[in-house]
# Entry
Amino acid sequence: MYDKNNIFAKILRKEIPCDKVYEDEVSLFFNDVNPQAKIHVLGIPKFPCSTFSEFTKNANNEIITSFFKNVQLVINKLNVEKSGYRLITNSGEDGGQEVAHFHIHILAGEKIGIIK
Ligand code: 5GP
# Structure
């Protein structure tokens, strides 16, 4: 079940500040507070969902498409398509997910090694 008090839900409600990269009606992208690469942006849908699977099962196709189109939009905005990037989403306990609101990590700006 979705926990409305997770930290990203608080960021979406503007109860906690973030260093915003892009926002529209379906999504928010912001810099990770503890970056694992020169560029480390987190992308979250505004749709309440704990994991990637909950998002793809419960959100409608328009929201899902818009969110993933926005991931590409932010890749363009960061100007890293040519140099390269890594997308990661951690899910659940075995996936090492810490914050229970589905998010995509965009890592770029340098060669990305093994990240645990
Ligand atoms: P996960 O392990 O859940 O995939 O990743 C959670 C990410 O959220 C981590 O990279 C962590 O640094 C980041 N994070 C946790 N709390 C905050 C916060 O309050 N603000 C920002 N900008 N990032 C956060």
Summary: The beta strands are 20-23, 27-31, 39-45, 85-88, 104-108. Residues 50 and 67 are 15 Å apart (CA to CA).
